[in-house]
């Protein structure tokens, strides 16, 4: 506890803030306040995380024995499909953008709200509608196609409730598109005076890059799944070879969105890390422009790598060569970020606060996830490891080790801003360590399983793979504890936590210059930005650094 | 677990050593970067730990030389990975000419396999050691994938397409194969065993029990007559359609001026979508045979067409033929 600066006594919650401005269920369900909408999303993505997590738990229990321990093959196939659909479309993709992005972008750029507050609320209702269709599919027969919906299995052969799920994801797509539009326009038009592009927090750059993918990519998945649905309902031959269609066409369309979707999940997490590291090292981020530009580079190049999922479908050798080379190209901006984050620590004033533990854990896990991506982009190696547990391990390192660590780390970092309360620091550090250990124990053995040849999506497996599977399941039980703990103490802290004050860390962003929790209008007066991002040296208002000579006039009149 | 180092499976094909070397190279590069970055983080974390409550870090904004270094150096390593991986992949995607061709049909949830002499197997594949083997892969329903970990090879089996994969077994033994593209309820049990035998054992096994009419060339010849292919595709080249003698493996000039290599996929396409590629000098007269032939029929016809060599004599159908041999 010694590393946390003791809170000056006497902080009190502001008399009126966005949480107590109005009361009643209507004031929440009809709100156009971006902060309240963020909390609506927080509740709903947590629900889907829980749903997906229950499926994951059952999968890991089932795989304890080679013959399968818990369920029938049909049920197993539904479990991993519904786990993937719930987690990807209804938790990971909306998590950081719709919860943290919604809450923070206006605060970070000094705006009162997003550009289109009503559209923002509509996005949430669209998300909920899509989610209801998918839950209906889960409840009435389930879904057994794999989250990838490969045709003709999904469009012809599956006996499960594919159609409502496809409709649900189609509807949900509009939520992403509208959120992306809202963010892009907000960032372009609503920045406070002095908030130039290169003073934007890197989280905002990352959200901007993500929004571009939302807008350009999501229509493709929506249309693709609609075509698969039409083929299923009306026997139109888009993808079914028996009707003159081409199943490979589906994969091209599917991955044209679904590969960039991986960047939808990881880019915002990278944005969170880029906020946490300079705050807890108390120095400017190393290579600001390179980190900002790499977000855009990832979003753009990310659109040209999709067919690396298809090296073994029989695609032309030339296509494979081009997509492999482009996949290596997209690795470079990710590497640039990791090098810059690491260098930021050099000569910092580093604390062990919980968000920093998550950020450093993120770097380690993302490093492994990113490096193993190089293995899969490698044409010769992909022949062997494609569609094995190596792939499963790789993308969980990116999506769980990367995106979820970033999300949970970000929740901790901004929790005092969102709720006005501090979480219990010791429990939070403990949970961060438990998550890190549990995660590695769950997923590292899967790399080895994959190289040994265990294919993914198997409800049973040869006995020689059992030891590694048991390790993985053991890790998953630790991981589950690591997720339950924050859910409990964060909820607890909303009522019983210590009052945080406006800027407990302290951090340099605009969002920390207003009250915690903020007012409905975010700021009393429109802020004017006259400092560079992550600049601790020239911010006497933060009360840090060597005691300033009393003759030095403060840069701002607010202290 | 196995007693030896359990990270690499058995090496039993020509591709296994090259894939494993590639793997070792990538592991070394990854370990280098992981250790370097983790070490830097741990050292910085403790060395620059906050000493006093109000301490701030030294404001360092960046360094262009460092940025260029960590863009250029990883790019060179990435290019090396790309080039080496591409070399292995290109080799895998281009089978040698003189291969032992085995036909593999995947369906929910079994593998039907037919040896060149017609001997059929279910979920079993027998191949001789030291011989280049090419699998011609077709699916009757959804997408499957034929994966032999000990050989380090796999290829999707796509309905409506022919894919091929090749390998040269290097060690006699018994190796498990899997379906590695999710294909529905019993995906996980859609596997079997590859038996790699000494060539003499393989020859003996092959001649062991052959179904009378099973030879795909004979079956194909029969279909060729039944479906009236032979009325147009006259062997002497005077028919309304081009002669098929010696067409396999050669280059075909098309009416639109382009040229294609006559491989299994081309023959298949020409049967099912007869107007997709019209041979130069001929009219698009041929009807489509889509829906009229099973995957095994198409494979038989393909085997028969492949057996037609340049001299205008019909295949006798006797004995083992190595299709594709020029």
Describe the structure.
The complex is a heterodimer of chains A (559) and B (326). By secondary structure, chain A is mainly α. Helix content of chain A is 64%, strand content 0%. Chain A is built from 15 helices and no strands. Chain A has helices at 25-29, 34-62, 73-109, 117-139, 153-157, 162-189, 202-234, 247-281, 288-301, 317-345, 354-377, 379-385, 389-419, 425-452, 466-496. In chain A, α13 runs antiparallel to α14. The longest helix of chain A has 37 residues, at 73-109. Mean pLDDT of chain A is 93; it is low at 551-555. Chain B is of the alpha+beta class and 326 residues long. Chain B is built from six helices and twelve strands. Chain B has a five-stranded mixed β-sheet with strand order 3-2-1-5-8, covered by helices on one side. In chain B, α1 (15-47) packs antiparallel against α2 and α4 crosses α6 (295-307). Chain B is elongated, with a radius of gyration of 27 Å. Chain B starts with 14 loop residues before the first helix and ends in a 19-residue tail after the last helix. Chains A and B meet through α3, α5, α8, α9 and α10 of A and α1, α2, β7 and β9 of B.
| Overall average residue pLDDT of chain A | 93
**Biggest interface, CB < 8 A:** A-B, 98 and 90 residues
Q: What distance separates the N and C termini of chain A? A: 28 Å
Derived structural class of chain B: alpha+beta
Oligomeric nature of the chains: heterodimer
DSSP strand content of chain A: under 5%
Main sheet summary of chain A: none
Task: Give a count of the beta strands of chain A, DSSP E runs of length 2 or more.
Answer: 0
End-to-end separation of chain B: 46 Å
Give Rg of chain B in angstroms. 27 Å
Arrangement of strands in the largest sheet of chain B: 3-2-1-5-8
Overall mean confidence score, pLDDT of chain B: 87
Overall, the morphology of chain A is globular
Pick out the low-confidence regions of chain B.
Answer: 1-5, 312-326
Task: Give the SSE order of chain B as H and E letters.
Answer: HHEEEEEEEEEEHHEEHH
Specify the biggest β-sheet of chain B.
5 strands, mixed
Number of helices of chain A: 15
Number of helices of chain B: 6
- Determine the fraction of residues in helical runs of chain B and give it as a percent range: 25-40%
In helices, the fraction of residues of chain A equals 55-70%
Number of strands of chain B: 12
């Amino acid at each position: 506890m010694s590393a946390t600066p003791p809170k000056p006594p006497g902080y009190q919650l502001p008399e009126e803030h966005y949480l107590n401005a109005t009361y009643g269920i209507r004031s929440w369900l009809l709100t156009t306040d971006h902060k309240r909408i963020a909390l609506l999303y927080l509740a709903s993505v947590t629900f889907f995380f829980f749903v997906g997590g229950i499926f994951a738990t059952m999968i890991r229990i089932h795989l304890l024995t080679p013959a399968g321990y818990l369920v029938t093959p049909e049920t197993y196939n539904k479990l991993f499909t519904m786990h993937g659909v719930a987690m990807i479309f209804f938790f990971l993709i909306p998590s950081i953008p719709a919860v943290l992005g919604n809450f923070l972008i206006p605060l970070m750029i000094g705006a009162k709200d997003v550009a289109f507050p009503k559209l923002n609320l509509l996005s949430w209702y669209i998300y909920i509608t899509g989610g209801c269709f998918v839950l209906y599919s889960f409840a009435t027969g389930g879904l057994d196609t794999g989250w990838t919906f490969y045709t003709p299995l999904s469009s012809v052969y599956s006996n499960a409730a594919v159609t409502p799920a496809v409709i649900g994801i189609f509807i949900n797509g509009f939520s992403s598109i509208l959120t992306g539009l809202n963010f892009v326009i907000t960032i372009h038009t609503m920045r406070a005076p002095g908030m130039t592009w290169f003073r934007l927090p890197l989280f905002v750059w990352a959200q901007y890059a993500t929004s571009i993918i939302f807008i350009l990519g999501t229509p493709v998945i929506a249309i693709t799944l609609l075509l698969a649905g039409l083929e299923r309902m009306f026997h139109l031959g888009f993808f079914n070879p028996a009707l003159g269609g081409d199943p490979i066409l589906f994969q091209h369309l599917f991955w044209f969105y679904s590969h960039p979707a991986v960047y939808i999940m990881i880019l915002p997490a990278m944005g969170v890390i880029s906020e946490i590291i300079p705050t807890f090292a108390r120095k400017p981020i190393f290579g600001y422009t390179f980190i900002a530009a790499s977000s855009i580079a990832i979003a753009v190049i990310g659109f040209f790598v999709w067919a690396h999922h298809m090296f073994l479908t029989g695609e032309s050798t030339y296509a494979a060569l081009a997509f492999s080379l482009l996949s290596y190209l997209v690795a470079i901006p990710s590497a640039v970020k990791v090098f810059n984050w690491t260098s930021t620590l050099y000569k910092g004033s580093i604390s062990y606060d919980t968000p920093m533990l998550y950020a450093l854990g993120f770097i380690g896990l993302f490093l492994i996830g990113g490096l193993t991506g190089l293995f899969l982009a490698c044409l010769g190696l992909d022949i062997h490891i494609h569609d094995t547990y190596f792939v499963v391990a790789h993308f969980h390192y990116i999506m769980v080790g990367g995106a979820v660590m970033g999300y949970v780390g970000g929740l901790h970092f901004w929790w005092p801003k969102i709720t006005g309360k501090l979480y219990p620091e010791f429990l939070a550090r403990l949970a961060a360590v438990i998550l890190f250990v549990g995660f590695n124990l769950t997923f590292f053995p899967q790399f080895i399983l994959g190289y040994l040849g265990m294919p993914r999506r198997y409800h049973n497996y040869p006995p020689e793979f059992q030891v590694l599977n048991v390790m993985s399941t053991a890790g998953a039980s630790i991981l589950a504890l690591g997720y339950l703990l924050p859910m409990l103490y964060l909820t607890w802290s909303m009522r019983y936590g210590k009052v945080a004050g406006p800027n407990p860390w302290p951090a340099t962003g605009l969002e920390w210059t207003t009250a915690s929790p903020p007012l409905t209008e975010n700021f009393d007066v429109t802020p004017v930005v006259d400092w560079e991002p992550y600049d601790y040296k020239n911010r006497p208002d933060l009360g840090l650094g060597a005691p300033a000579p009393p003759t030095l006039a403060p840069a701002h009149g607010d202290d | 677990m196995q007693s030896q180092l359990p990270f690499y499976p058995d090496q039993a094909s020509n591709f296994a050593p090259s894939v494993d070397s590639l793997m070792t190279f990538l592991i070394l590069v990854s370990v280098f970067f992981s250790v370097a970055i983790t070490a830097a983080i741990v050292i910085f974390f403790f060395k620059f730990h906050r000493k006093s409550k109000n301490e701030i870090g030294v404001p360092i904004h960046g360094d262009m030389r460092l940025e260029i270094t960590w863009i250029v150096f990883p790019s060179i390593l990435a290019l090396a990975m790309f080039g080496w991986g591409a070399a292995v992949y290109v080799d895998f995607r281009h089978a040698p000419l003189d291969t032992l061709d085995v036909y593999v049909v995947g369906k929910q949830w079994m593998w039907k396999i037919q040896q060149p002499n017609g001997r059929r197997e279910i979920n079993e594949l027998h191949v001789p050691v030291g011989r280049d083997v090419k699998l011609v892969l077709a699916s009757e329903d959804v997408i499957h994938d034929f994966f032999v970990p000990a050989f380090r090879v796999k290829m999707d089996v796509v309905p409506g397409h022919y894919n091929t994969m090749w390998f040269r077994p290097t060690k006699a033994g018994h190796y498990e194969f899997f379906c590695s593209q999710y294909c529905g309820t019993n995906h996980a049990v859609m596997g079997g065993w590859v038996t790699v035998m000494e060539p003499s054992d393989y020859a003996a096994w092959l001649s062991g029990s052959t179904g009378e009419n099973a030879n795909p060339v004979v079956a194909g010849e029969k279909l060729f007559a039944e479906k009236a292919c032979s009325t147009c595709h006259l062997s002497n080249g005077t028919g309304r359609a081009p002669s098929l003698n010696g067409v396999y493996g050669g280059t075909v000039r098309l009416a639109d001026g382009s040229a294609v290599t006559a491989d299994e996929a081309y023959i298949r396409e020409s049967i099912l979508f007869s107007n997709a590629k019209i041979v130069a000098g001929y009219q698009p007269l041929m009807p489509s045979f889509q829906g009229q032939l099973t995957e095994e029929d198409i494979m038989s016809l393909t085997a028969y067409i492949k057996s037609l060599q340049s001299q205008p004599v019909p295949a006798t159908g006797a004995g083992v033929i190595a299709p594709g041999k020029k």
